[in-house]
Every structure is written in C-alpha cells, then in structure tokens.
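Re: duplicated header lines in exported structure tokens

Our pipeline writes sequence and tokens for each protein into one text file. With two proteins the header for the second block appears twice in some exports. Here is an export where it did not happen, for reference. First protein block:
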Amino acid sequence: MSLVGVLDGTLAARWSLGFEDLALLNAKPAGTRLGFAAQLMMYRTTGRFGRAAGEFPGAAIAYLAEQIGVTAADLADYDWLGRSGRRHRAEILAHLGFRRARQQDMRDASAWTGSELCPLGLPSSEMMERLLGWFVERRIAAPGEEAVGALIVTARRTFEDKVLEAIASSLSPEHRRGLDASLADEDSATSFSDLKADPGQPNLDNILMAARRLAFVKHLALPVADVRI
C-alpha cells in the first residue's frame, strides 16, 4: 500500500521532496540517496542535521524511501559523520541557499534570544528549537549545537542580571536596610532562610510563625518593580 495517501498533512508537508530536490538526489549513488534526503529535509525544517538514523521518524523515512524508489534499509549504511557525510552537509547548505553565520549574525541571535525567548521562561530544549528556527528563517547556517547552547546560556544569564538590576534599582534605602537585616540575621524567625523555608505541618506554632513571617514581609512594603527588559 502506498504511504502517499495515508500520511497526515503535517508529515507530508515536512518530508515531501520537490523537483529540484529529486534532481539533486538522482545525481547521487543509489545507496546514499535516502540518507542525503533525510538530512536535506531535517535541515530544511529544523536547522540541524541528524547524527544517526535513530533521530528520524520511521514513517518519515519510509515516505522518503518511497519517493526516491529505494528501501528504508538503505539508511543503515549511510555515512553520517564521515567524509561523505560532511560533503553532503555542505552540498545541502548550498542547495538550500544557506550561508555561514557571521559575527553580526551571532550578536543578532543573542539579542533576539534575550528579548524574545528569555522572558518566556522556556526550557533550554525549546529555546534551542526556536533559536534554530530563527537561523532557518534567515537562511543562515547555525553553528554547532554546543555553540548555540552556549549562546542561550549567556543570553539567559545576561537577561537574569538585567532583571535583578531592575529590581534592585526599584528599592529605596529603607527597603535595602530591611532586606539586608533579613539576610544578616540567620537566627531570626524572619531571616531570609526561614522566610523561604517550608512552614511545616499545620499546627498552632507553625501557623503563628507563618503569620509572623507574612507580617514581616508586609511591613517591608516592597514596591512592585517594572522588570520589563
């Protein structure tokens, strides 16, 4: 049974080869065509290359194999990380019209990450996916995932520093004295470590202690800081 008629729209849209793609593939040795096609379609949609067959959905590989006229088993012998694999990746970038990232691109990517991604509080994996999408939209070949991950870490740290600076700048001298006293007095029930501690089981003593801590925080009258960066 042909897979073309049973694939869902998302898979078909993401893994369907165009005429120019097929022309490029037909110039390749038959045994390498499926791996080349898988790398081509992976990079086109995600901005990264696969490093092993297991990174690709089985249904997508079957669909690609049918379009090319080979079997899915051909993927087992593909040279993912060797010389031919590196040559294929370079050919794919040229075919898709991607250029190498420049220093200004990396600065722009860092700025975009700080302004658009960091405020969302996303996990690192989702930030990575969205940032790679940023490179794809601009037809820029992103550096390796290690370098992109380092960019995310740096952008997040810079963003957090700016947030903390914004909060600190909103505090009056009186607010600072109250907070400093809480941080300095570790033996007090209103020390910073006790304020953030679990209140414990719901008994009278713990309820009274929690009420004291809440009263202390209310007495600080901390301002609502505008931390928009």
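Second protein block, exported in the same file:
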Amino acid sequence: MGPLETLVSPHMSLADAEKSTEVDVTIGRLEPQRFAEIVAARTQQNLDPASSLCLACTDVLDVTGAGLMLVSGERSLGCVGVSDPVTEAVEQVEYTLGEGPCVTAYRTKNPVFDPDLADENIDQWPEFRRGALEAGVRAAFGFPLLVDRICIGALNLYRDRSGALTDAQIDDAVVVARLASRTLLSWQADAPPGTVAWQLEQVPNHRMQVHQATGRISVQAGVSLAAASQHAAVLRGAGLIASRRQGGAVLHVLTPLGAELLQAG
C-alpha cells in the first residue's frame, strides 16, 4: 500500500476517496475549472506539479505563499509542495518544531487564522511565530485537507503583511483545500500499486532530511531555523552540505569541512 493510500481510512479505497472530495462550488466564488486552468498554466512554466499547485493557490487567493503538508496517522510525511523559498523556510520551521497553523488545522480539522504574527498578545505557537517573522512572514493561515471526514494534511497560506482574510478568501480557500485534496489523491490513484505518485516521489523523505540537517545547522551555528533554511543553498554551494541517496531517501548532511567549521566557530 502506498503512502498516500494510508492517508485515508483503511476501509476507504482511493476511488471512494476521490468521490468523497467532490467540491461544492457554491461555497465560494472560485470555480474548479478556473483553478485547474491556473494550475495548468503554472505547470507550463516548467515547474514541478506540487509547486504549480501551490503557486496556483497564491494566484487565486491573493496570498504571498502557500504550502501543502501531508500526514499519515500521527506521522507527518512533511511538506510536499511550496510556492517559494520563503514559504519553504517557514514550512521547515513548522515541521521541525511541530507547531503552527498547518499542524493545528490538521489536528482540529478546522481552519486556523493568525492575521498578525507580531501581535505580542497572542501566545499560540511562540517559536513558530518567531521563526516565521524572521523569514519575512507577517500572517499565517491553515486549512485542513479533508477527504470526507478524514484529514490527510493541511494547506498553509502566508502573507508578507498583517491582516485578516476576507470572508470571500476564506470561502475560496476552503474550496482550494478540497481541490488540492482531490488532486493529491488523483495523482496517487494513477500510480502503480505499492508506489508513490511520480509527482510526489521522494518529496516527503527528501524534505524530512532537509529539516533534520537544517535543524542541526541551526543548533550548531547558533542561528534561527528560518535563517539556516534560507542559507542552505549557499551552504551546499560552498561544500558545507552534501547530498546522497540512501534507499528511497535523499539525505542532506554536513560535510567534514562543514562540521569542522561549525565546531571551530
């Protein structure tokens, strides 16, 4: 059984799950066909399918970033798609800390809103809020990815300015989350039995290792998770991080030079 198949009820087939994600277009203004066209247009820009899906979310919802997280039972399979590097940095912070709008939306199966991450009167997700602000995010919102009554993950939305979503944006975000759920399941439904859809292949394992390496860099270098993530590309280019395959995963680890420099610092 493939990883996405375990995200739905053990008594529910992927075909049944797809039927249960039929979208009620009367909820918001967004029509599924329009959203599909925007996803297709993004895909034509030579982007991978998961990134195209996230970028389409930002296009129709007027937000600056979007990310998709999948969860199987109590085990997070990690972020499977992001719209941009800043969102990826914030998603890494949330994954590593285990707190934030995506995690809460998944656990409660309800939308979660934090329109002003700098509001000191709000005490939820203190470490996530700090990391998100350092990355340049000012507002964050989470929407559950529901398949019937089963939650398979969450859609994260970010803005670089504070402010609440409008009622219309919330309604459309609910529709987008349902469409994203159906898209993820349709990808997996087309995959050979026992395999992961090519659109998602290696993404969870890859990102999980990135989070672990980023966390280690953050601790040893004494910088925030967001800063470590944003500088990961530079670290790889400087020969401080190496990538290698181990089974089905791509591991990102410190090189001897990287470890030596960090210890010396």
